[in-house]
Structures are given as structure tokens and as C-alpha cells.
């Protein structure tokens, strides 16, 4: 297998389970909150509500984009993308299993702290762009 195919496959092999895990943890959290609040939970879509994360994702994608009228549009749209990408890049040095790590630098902990601290700039950029 060439390097041009191996690296993206390895990246997808780490990112997709991570994103699916987050989606179903959100589903579990919604079910617990429905139980605590004594109301019906997300059991309407699919059996046991297993399709609810897909419906939530499609609803999020299809929503009408709202931005303040005085906002710098490019910065306002770039800020969440920057925050999301930095959170994924920080996972590059986290070992998921023996030998299943994207990058293995000697200063992995320092890299993790440095990239994690950059994530706040997306929030600052979003606030500044809507000024």
C-alpha cells in the first residue's frame, strides 16, 4: 500500500471512531437527561433511538446559517472550524492502542498542551469577528 493511501486511511481509522463515539455519548446523555426530567427521550427515530445522532447531524448541517449583520463573515465562519481542527490535531500524539498513534514525537505531552491551548483562539476569533 502506498504512503498516499496509508496515511489518510490511518487518520480516518482514528477520527471516525472518535466522532461516532462522541455522537453516541451525546445520545446516552440525552437519554439520561430524559430519565432524570421524567420525559420521553430520543426514542422516536429508529429502534432505541440509534439513528438520533444521524438526525441531529443532518439537522445541524441543514440549519439556516445565522451570522450577525456587522460580523466579518470569513472570520465568523473560520472560528469554529479552527477550534474543531485544533481539537483533532491534538489527538495526533494520543496513543489509542499499541502502535496505533499517528505521530510519536518525543515531546508529545508538550505538543498536546501547546495545541490544546491554541483552541481558545477560535473562541476569541468568533467573539472578535462579531464586533
Task: Show the helix and strand layout.
Layout: H1 3-36, H2 52-62, H3 73-89, H4 108-118, H5 120-129
Helix pairs in contact: 3-5
Describe the structure.
The chain is mainly alpha-helical. The chain has five helices and no strands. It has helices spanning 3-36, 52-62, 73-89, 108-118, 120-129. The model has no long low-confidence stretch (mean pLDDT 80).
Mean pLDDT: 80
Structure summary, number of beta strands: 0
Strand content: under 5%
Which spans of ≥5 residues are poorly predicted at pLDDT below 50? none
Tally of alpha and pi helices = 5
Q: Which structural category do the helix and sheet elements fall into?
A: mainly alpha
End-to-end separation: 50 Å
The helix-strand sequence is: HHHHH
In percent, how helical is the residue content? Answer: 55-70%
Q: Biggest β-sheet, characterized?
A: none
Q: How would you describe the shape?
A: globular
Based on CA atoms alone, the radius of gyration comes out at 19 Å
